[in-house]
Design brief:
binds N,N,N-trimethyl-histidine, Rossmann fold, 7-stranded mixed beta sheet, methyltransferase, MeTrfase_dom, 4-stranded mixed beta sheet, 13 strands, 325 residues, 11 helices, 41% helix, MeTrfase_EgtD-like
Length: 325
């Protein structure tokens, strides 16, 4: 039985109860599974920022190229004759979108910026950085799950919505889930609204694998940090030396996956739960799906969107696809 949450600490208590529930459910499944959305605690945010700075992790540079050098194209696709809310799902530190935000402010556009993120930590970093960089920007940070916060944004304002979902975050869902997600998103948008999604494209498989299998081991630490987070927040006793990161990329399906391998048979305690691992048993940690142009077209079509524009980086490794309802 879950204890009812005290109003004052409602978010925090309920969040850690959901975290525990998800973890126990995932580690009781076959194969064992953890959700990559829990990667992003304070330490995970820091590790992900290190990943974005790695030369192998081309995604950031590609999308930065789009936001820095093709800002005009983005702005004309958005259109700014009517006021709007720019809602960013998984905004993180808003490094890429800040170029768009700056441009829109220079043009004196009537818009609010509503960054949504599961990490309250990164949202406060974002707010601090952006208020300094673009003082005239109206920022309304929303901490929580995408759809809960999107619904809140709708209750706060009835202006036209421009939804940003960048960085290849959509790739963190297996294809079937991504379709469900787009359909859910579609339900929340009305004519005139736009969705701008960043897709990492299928490319030389060596390039893809290298981005997630760095020699320096930052991606490995990023995965292992979730075990450490469970030790800290859920009173678990994972020994990080007894798990090893394993990365795969299947160029046919486009699925890039990370696993943790249990290096020996072991029993782990999480609060008053116990989880057994066999030697070499896997935990399925994350998928980073890659897309062909046809994959993107099919996804848009099956979720009742229409593609109105596509903006690629100069290498054509990444695309920001602009959809309307
Ligand atoms: C933040 C989901 C876009 O999948 O490429 C980076 C996360 N994981 N390296 C990705 C990640 C391992 C990243 N996204």
């Amino acid at each position: 039985m879950n204890a009812p949450c005290e109003p004052a600490t409602l978010t925090e208590n309920c969040t850690s109860q959901t975290f525990l529930k998800d973890v126990i459910e995932g580690l009781s499944a076959h194969p064992k599974k953890l959700s990559s959305k829990y990667f992003y605690d304070k330490n995970g945010d820091r590790l992900f920022q290190q990943i974005m700075a790695m030369p192998e992790y081309y995604l950031t540079q590609c999308e930065l190229d789009i936001f820095k050098n093709k800002t005009e194209k983005l702005v004309s696709a958005i259109g700014f004759s009517t006021p709007f809310d720019l809602i960013e799902l998984g905004a993180g530190d808003a490094m890429k979108s800040s170029y768009l935000l700056e441009h829109l402010c220079t043009l004196d556009c009537d818009f609010s910026y509503m960054p949504i993120d599961i990490s309250g930590n990164i949202l406060s970093v974002l707010k601090e950085n952006l208020s300094e960089k673009i003082p005239s920007l109206n920022i309304i940070p929303l901490e929580g799950d995408y759809f809960d916060m999107l619904d809140r944004a709708t209750r706060l304002s009835d202006r036209r919505k421009v939804v940003l979902f960048l960085g290849g975050n959509i790739g963190n869902m297996p294809p079937e889930e991504a379709l469900q997600f787009c359909m859910e998103l579609r339900k929340r948008l009305t004519p005139g609204d736009l969705l701008i999604t960043g897709f990492d494209l299928k490319k030389n498989p060596h390039t893809v694998l290298a981005a997630y299998n760095d020699e320096t081991g930052i991606t490995a630490s990023f995965n292992l940090n979730l075990l450490e987070r469970m030790n800290r927040e859920l009173d678990a006793d994972f020994d990080l030396d007894k798990f090893k990161h394993y990365q795969t990329y299947d160029p046919v399906s486009g699925a890039c996956r990370s696993f943790l391998v249990s290096l020996e048979a072991q029993k782990i305690h999480i609060g008053n739960h116990m989880i057994s691992f066999k030697e070499n048993e896997l935990i399925d940690m994350e998928i980073s799906q890659k897309f062909s142009p046809e994959d993107i077209q099919n996804l848009a079509k099956e979720s009742w969107f229409r593609i109105v524009n596509e903006i690629k980086d100069s290498k054509e490794w990444f695309v920001d696809s602009i959809w309307t309802v």
